[in-house]
Write a structure and sequence with these properties.
The complex is a heterodimer of chains A (about 280) and B (about 190). Chain A contains 11 helices and 2 strands. Chain A is mostly helical and about 280 residues long. In chain A, α1 crosses α3. Classes of the chains: A mainly alpha (about 280), B mainly alpha (about 190).
Chain lengths: ~280, ~190
């Protein structure tokens, strides 16, 4: 209870400062504070302690919080997956039948016709997907995974500190054109349009990969959804995980050299490239 | 109406309904990512204040925002989403801390980095000074609810939201905050 003759308690001062007093009590507290230097001095002390605590709270964690870009990508991938998840048709169906006021009045024949159309549509969709898959599989030589006999992956001797503690000026240094030509030759692709490919590191330099022929291969930019841009996103994600010590460097290198597409699916929790990485 | 015409009308209606639904889900997804951008650091700091590692904290946040997606997708209440995400973060952080305490070897095997806000080492002690060490000591000695009230308030929650997150009364929040600040103040003056 606020009383003009009695000083405000800490709790009241705090609620006043935090805007948590009801309007009538707030007006009385303001009036009291205008008249009472003791209470204003006490308020200043409380504010000083609040400042100390807020600094302590931030300083304990802020320096260790990693950038949001990686977790944001993972969240987007997981939301995409949730949106396309198996239970979604049920949920949509729920919406569909939930608009029952419209449908309830329809004759059964119309409903059967609707179901028939849905089934036909689904059949057509599946057929088109299969055709697309076959087309993609048929694109000769444009597999997004390198030939392991030519490109098994090669690393230089580096440790966590080299990868994470030091500033790397260029995370993805350009491969000299003479080496690019050698890579195309190795893959029997002399004369292929170079603009359609990135001669890419299988194990990224930012994770210890070398610019050796055994670590380079012509990776398509756009002929498949699993292209160079998607792999770049995976490399960034793995680098972040290594530096956060969530996985070790050898694991990251192995994931890239073994099957980077499976690794992408695993670390982005997504069966297809996330928007923004392709 | 001829049967074929009716068929087309139903087909059109279904496709429009599905299109709207797809658009709504995409828009919801964007809203969730926007909220993540806005609140991620505050929620992560709060999760870490339970003594969890950063990977644990990030995991929890993923779960929180996926849960929010499902919550809103099911058409549930949009009232005070900020309080909602803090409440879910609080509950998941408590659960994770308790699981880690039960099986610390599992937490280590998961590659979890050392928990945040550990007891400061000698070098850190020199850096952060005696006054802050005293504050830290008092903070660690506070009852759990008092510390939670302070941390939630520092993250910008109003008393009503804090009360909802912690399942206590509004009055208990203000008493707790005043009591904790008085303790911290005494530690500073020592």
């Amino acid at each position: 209870m606020l009383n003009d003759d009695v000083h405000l308690r800490d709790e009241e001062l705090l609620r006043f400062a935090d805007g948590e007093l009801a309007s009538r009590r707030r007006a009385r507290a303001r009036e009291h504070l205008a008249a009472c230097w003791d209470c204003r001095a006490r308020m200043a002390e409380l504010e000083k302690t609040i400042v100390s605590f807020v600094h302590l709270h931030h300083d304990s964690f802020d320096g260790r919080i990693p950038p949001a870009s990686g977790p944001r990508s993972v969240l987007k991938a997981r939301l995409d997956a949730a949106r396309n998840s198996a239970d979604e048709p049920q949920s949509r169906a729920g919406d569909f039948w939930g608009r029952g006021s419209k449908l309830a009045g329809l004759h059964h024949v119309q409903l059967y016709a609707a179901l028939l159309l849905l089934a036909l549509g689904l059949g057509l969709f599946v057929h088109q997907e299969r055709v697309l898959e076959r087309r993609q599989a048929g694109l000769a030589g444009i597999r997004p995974i390198p030939d392991r006999s030519l490109t098994p992956g090669e690393t230089r001797p580096v440790g966590w500190t080299d990868i994470c503690a030091s500033e790397q000026s260029d995370l993805d240094p350009a491969v000299p054109s003479s080496i690019q030509r050698s890579v195309f030759r190795e893959y029997g692709m002399d004369g292929a349009p170079t603009k359609d490919y990135e001669v890419d590191y299988l194990i990224a330099p930012q994770l210890g990969g070398t610019a050796d022929l055994r670590n380079l291969w012509p990776e398509p930019y756009s002929s498949t959804i699993w292209n160079a841009h998607v792999k770049d996103a995976l490399e960034d994600r793995l680098h972040q995980l290594v530096c956060q010590q969530q996985i070790d460097l050898a694991t990251a290198q192995r994931e890239l050299s073994t099957d980077w597409i499976s690794a992408y699916k695993k670390y982005f929790h997504s069966e297809k490239p996330v928007q923004g990485s392709s | 109406m001829p049967f074929q015409a009716r068929e087309s009308a139903v087909e059109l209606w279904i496709s429009e309904a599905n299109g709207r639904s797809e658009e709504a889900l995409l828009s919801l997804e964007q809203e969730i990512v926007g909220l993540f951008d806005e609140m991620r650091n505050r929620l992560l700091r709060y999760a870490l204040s339970f003594g969890l590692s950063i990977p644990d904290g990030e995991d929890i946040l993923q779960e929180v925002f996926l849960a929010l997606f499902h919550h809103l997708r099911q058409g549930r209440s949009r009232a005070n989403l900020r309080g909602w995400v803090f409440r879910v973060t609080h509950n998941l952080a408590l659960k994770r801390r308790s699981a880690n305490q039960r099986s610390p070897e599992l937490a280590e095997a998961d590659g979890a980095a050392e928990p945040c806000d550990p007891a400061p080492g000698a070098e850190e002690q020199l850096l952060i000074g005696e006054r802050r060490l005293r504050l830290l000591a008092v903070l660690r000695a506070l009852p759990e609810t008092d510390e939670r009230c302070l941390r939630l308030r520092a993250e910008g929650l109003r008393y009503r939201e804090i009360a909802q997150v912690l399942g206590i009364s509004l009055g208990a929040v203000s008493i707790s905050l005043a009591r904790s600040l008085a303790r911290l103040e005494r530690a500073e003056m020592r």
